[in-house]
Amino acid sequence: MNELLNKLKNGLIVSCQAFEDEPLHGSDTMAKMAVAAKMGGAVGLRGCWPNDIKAMKKATDLPIVGIYKVMDENTDVSRDIIITPTFETAKEIYDAGADIIALDCTKRRSSLETEKLIYKIKSELDVMIMADISTLEEGIDAAKFGVDIVSTTLSGYTKYSTQSSGPDYDLVQQLAEKIDKPINAEGRYWEPEQMIKAFECGAWMITIGSAITRPQLITKRFADRLNEYNTKGE
Ligand SMILES: CC(=O)N[C@H](C=O)[C@@H](O)[C@H](O)[C@H](O)COP(=O)(O)O
């Protein structure tokens, strides 16, 4: 088994990402988040854009799953491919130091295009690929096209995938049963016990983002609960 995959086995990857409209946006802050994640016991990181990845790489020695999100004011996140959409974006994060490149492998793009992109990355860059998918069928296809890891990242974020406010355990389980590749559980994990359930469903590793690195959402979760409590008696 590949040495990097061994390091990630049964481990926690912390996603450190903040868009321009988020209070923690900026590479310095993401690097600090990365250090905090390492102190807390993360075995890997997920980061977005070359500058953030470079800064996180400099600040820690943890392996990085790199992505490059491309979006503008016309982007519809349920319709468009935004996670590492092209070879050029993959190459940029590879040059920045990503150890694994994650890319959208949903059927929002044709299978042929996805297959070609995977082939080009595999043949020109010495890097592992994580397929961000939303359904079992997409996971099976991505595995056939030669990715190294399949991730549930986009379940709930394509129009045709299972919509849920919590993690998609069924998808983790089905992928683990049907695909002979490590499965990364990702998306809407907020509780340690949810994470354990993902491993019981067959996950190789787990990636958690918002519940650890988006303080505005962490605060909102508490504030929402408090509002609910405060309005009950009215
Ligand atoms: C759907 C999409 O674009 N997900 C992104 C992928 O990189 C990130 O915004 C998520 O934070 C990440 O997947 C981790 O998930 P969660 O934050 O739920 O733990």
UniProtKB/TrEMBL annotation:
<dbReference type="GO" id="GO:0019262">
    <property type="term" value="P:N-acetylneuraminate catabolic process"/>
</dbReference>
<keyword id="KW-0119">Carbohydrate metabolism</keyword>
<comment type="pathway">
    <text>Amino-sugar metabolism; N-acetylneuraminate degradation; D-fructose 6-phosphate from N-acetylneuraminate: step 3/5.</text>
</comment>
<dbReference type="GO" id="GO:0006053">
    <property type="term" value="P:N-acetylmannosamine catabolic process"/>
</dbReference>
<dbReference type="GO" id="GO:0047465">
    <property type="term" value="F:N-acylglucosamine-6-phosphate 2-epimerase activity"/>
</dbReference>
<dbReference type="GO" id="GO:0005829">
    <property type="term" value="C:cytosol"/>
</dbReference>
<keyword id="KW-0413">Isomerase</keyword>
<comment type="function">
    <text>Converts N-acetylmannosamine-6-phosphate (ManNAc-6-P) to N-acetylglucosamine-6-phosphate (GlcNAc-6-P).</text>
</comment>
<protein>
    <recommendedName>
        <fullName>Putative N-acetylmannosamine-6-phosphate 2-epimerase</fullName>
        <ecNumber>5.1.3.9</ecNumber>
    </recommendedName>
</protein>
<comment type="similarity">
    <text>Belongs to the NanE family.</text>
</comment>
<dbReference type="InterPro" id="IPR007260">
    <property type="entry name" value="NanE"/>
</dbReference>
<dbReference type="InterPro" id="IPR011060">
    <property type="entry name" value="RibuloseP-bd_barrel"/>
</dbReference>
<dbReference type="GO" id="GO:0005975">
    <property type="term" value="P:carbohydrate metabolic process"/>
</dbReference>
<dbReference type="InterPro" id="IPR013785">
    <property type="entry name" value="Aldolase_TIM"/>
</dbReference>
<dbReference type="Pfam" id="PF04131">
    <property type="entry name" value="NanE"/>
</dbReference>
